[in-house]
Structure formats: structure tokens, C-alpha cells
Amino acid sequence: MFDMSEEFSKRFAQDEATCGGVGQSEGWSLECDLQLLEITPAATLVVDTFGQIFRANQRAFELLKPSGNILLGTALRDYLLADSAEAFKHFFARLRESEGVQTCEMRLKTGANDVLQVLMQAKVVPKDGGQLLVFTLNDITEWRSADPESILIEERLRHSQKMEALGRLSAGVVHDFNNILTIITGYSRIVLDELEGSPERQHLQKIAHASGRAADLVSKMLLFARGEESGCERVLNLNDRVIAFEDLFKSLVSDEIRLEALLEPNLANIRADANQIDQVLMNLAMNARDAMDGSGVLSFETSVRFIGSDRPRHLAHLTPGQYVELRVCDTGCGMTPEDAERAFRPFFSTKGVGHGTGLGLATVRSIMHECGGEVELTTAPREGSCFALLFPAADSSIDNFSESLGFVMNMECEGTHIFVVNENPEVRELIVYVMEKQGYCVTQSCPTEALDKAQQAASPFTMVVIDRNLPKPLSRELLGGLRGLHPSIKTLFLSSQRTPSIFELGSAELQKPFTSHELCYAVQDLLNT
Questions:
Q1: For residue 30, is pLDDT > 50?
Q2: Cβ pair 478, 493 in contact under 8 A
Q3: 306 and 412, same structural domain?
Q4: Which residues is 441 bridged to in the sheet?
């Protein structure tokens, strides 16, 4: 709280030098400090050493409501409740002996018989060899009497309102940023297919991987602002994450560290957040790099492992069944049994001050538990370390597919006419390029001209690919007009944020940013419904 008694005391002492003492009764207060008293937000009193109120601002009159509106010349103690009188006596005595600001809480009774809980702050001002005292009073009755739960609820409500506003702002930023990421991701995938076998391909893989991580980060920022759960969990294959991570890790270590991968070709899928898996791999790989001190071997090995009812004690919390195991091993310095026992504790580190937060392995274990799995550590001094990550195998599966766009679709495209409607011309051009490469007939338009183009179309549209972020009135008018012209048209919505909407038959949603492969699969799936 801003200390008005301190501020007023300084100004009062300064004004005394120019305006004279208290003996010039109307000089110092009315001409020099009355204005300062009135602009002070707290109730402010100037009191003599006997406790008599010498000057007061309007806020003090409003707070104390003196009888007959007479406050000057009355004693401050006259407004104290009996249970505060003794405390005020000691406070007053302590105040006169100190040079700093004194603070306490007192219970007062106003001239209107209202009982107030006030925060009282006071400071002594030297005057002509004597003293004056400046008091500020702040009413805290409502705050003190409020139910703590009510205060908490009110604070949560304010926080919720702030986050709601942030969420609305984030939605607009996410839409624009995801359009940019869609262009980067889409064209990266196209060029990757064209550079099959080229040594330059690895650079584009890093761009594609980075844009994917950026998309996950933006999505999580939006979900956080809205106070929602992550919702980023999906079925994935650990082999794919290791392959994608390998290129990124190579750029972070010296050539003296050799990477090895032994990946099970028929590996079961898991259900997890891809961004969290990348974080686990990064934390383990960075620890391994530091442990190997510039040279050594870092290996990744995937396999399937069955956890039965006779599982060891440290795995007792796991549900018996099939698990996917990823072993991350290094040839570094290893750990002593004492360090290994503490390795997963938050803030424990063997790297020394300034070289580690001690949160890397704690984060790994936390993520593994969140996935319903566990992490095991095998290590010994000078024999390296091996972390075994156990993920429950997913009940559902994803189709294995080739990285070649030519394999994505080998279907009959003749007679399929796709209408691309998007306000961003670069996104439109990307979609048109991918669809035409697959053999589709494609027409594109900005939203405001879409209905006119639809009416002039030489052949009926099979599908419209449209941005969900269009203003609702425009979107309703556009979709209604298209369905009037082409009753069997299907709708693929492009969305910057996950929506809980239940789509009607003949419609689907594709999350931005998307790759050319994901776009082709979404179109194919919708056409097949």
C-alpha cells in the first residue's frame, strides 16, 4: 500500500520552512498543504501530541462521520472502540518515540455508530522543537469480514475474465500464424518429396520438424489461455519420433558423437503428446551429450515388452499388458548408485552450479507417468547410462503410409471438382497446387467472390475447402448458397483451433497447419464418406 503519511510528512516539513509554524494557524494548512490533504485518497489527519485532530481532509470527514460534522478539535481516541483503546495508547507512545512510519489495525466507531476496521499508518513530523503527527486511515472492514472462500472465488473470476480476453486475442493471432505455418509446412513437404535421395533433404527435414513443433506450441498456448486440457494426445509411432528427432539432434552435437538406431519394424503404436515425446528425447539426449564430454555413442532402440502380473516392485503401478519400450543409452561417465537413486528428484544435478537446472530427468519421469508408463535407469560409473522408457501400447492403430506423396492417393480423380475458398491467397495457391498434382479439377476464390464463381462454374463442385475462421454471417451465406447450387457438395473446414463441434454428414475438419500428405488424406477420407 502506498504510504501517504510518509509522503505528506515530507511535504509538511518542507512547507513549514516556507509558510511558518502552527502558531500561524491559517498559514501553513490553508495556503500550503490544504490542497495536498484533499488530493490524498486515504482519510488523512494531522494530530498534536495530545491526540487532538488539528487538520483533516474531506475523506476523513466521510470516513469518521463526526457528530454535527465537527471533527477538528476532537480527539482521535474518541473514535476508538473499547477493545482498541489500550492498543492505541501503546501505538501512540511508540509512534512518538520513532522516526519511521508505524502501522497497525484498529477498530473505530464513527459518529453514525458504524463500526470500522481500519489500517492506520502514522509518522511524526518535527515542529518548532515539538512534534505533530500525520495519520492515514484506510477502511478494510469489507476485506477483513469477507469469507476467504468468497475472496478466492472473486479472484478466480477476475483471472478467468483476463484469460478469456487473452483467449480471444490468441485466437486471432493463432489464425494468422497458422496460415504462415501452413505455407511453410506444406511447401516443405512438397520439396522433400522432390528431393528424395538428395543430401540437401536433411535441411528441409529440420524446417518441417521445427514448423511442426511451432504448431504444437501455438496450439498449447491457446489451450492454456482458455484454461483447457492439452488435447494434443494422439496415436503415434515411436520409430517416427526417433527418426524425426535424429536429424535435429545431429545439429546440436559434435561429429565425435555417433548416433545409432535399432528400430523394431513392427512396433506397436502408443497414445501420447508428440511434443512431450520430443521433450523427453531432448532431455535424455542433452544429458547423454554432457555425460560423454564430446565423444561417444548415443543409441536408440525400440522393442515390444510384455509386463505381466509378476512385474518387479518398481513397476507395480503399471497395468499388465503390452508396452512399447524405447531404450536411450550412452557411453558416458555413468552414475554412482547414490546419484542414480536421486537422479529423478527435482533440482538434483551432478553438472555443477550454472550447468543444469536439475529438472530434466524429473520432467522425463513426470511425462512418462502422465502417459501411464515408467522410466527405468541402469547405470554404473564409467559404464554409461541407459534409460528404458515404457509406454502402454495403444488400443487403436494408425495406418502405415509411405513418405512419398505419390503413394498418398491412387484413386480415380476424374469428375471430382474441388472449390478452394480462403482469404489468404498463398494458402489457396498451396492447396490448389497439391490438389491439381493429384489430378483433381480445382477452382479457387476469395470468400467475397465465391458465390459468383460458383454460379459460373462449368461443372458442379464435389467439395468445398473453406476456412472455419470466416465471419459467421458470411460463412452461413456462402455455405447456404453453395448447397443450394450443389446439394451434394461436401465441406472440408480448415481450422486454427480444435473445435468440439459435431459435424454433419458430408463434412470434416483439418487442423492447420497441415502437410500436403495430411491434406490429401483428409480430402480422400471425406470423398469416401
A1: no
A2: no
A3: no
A4: 417
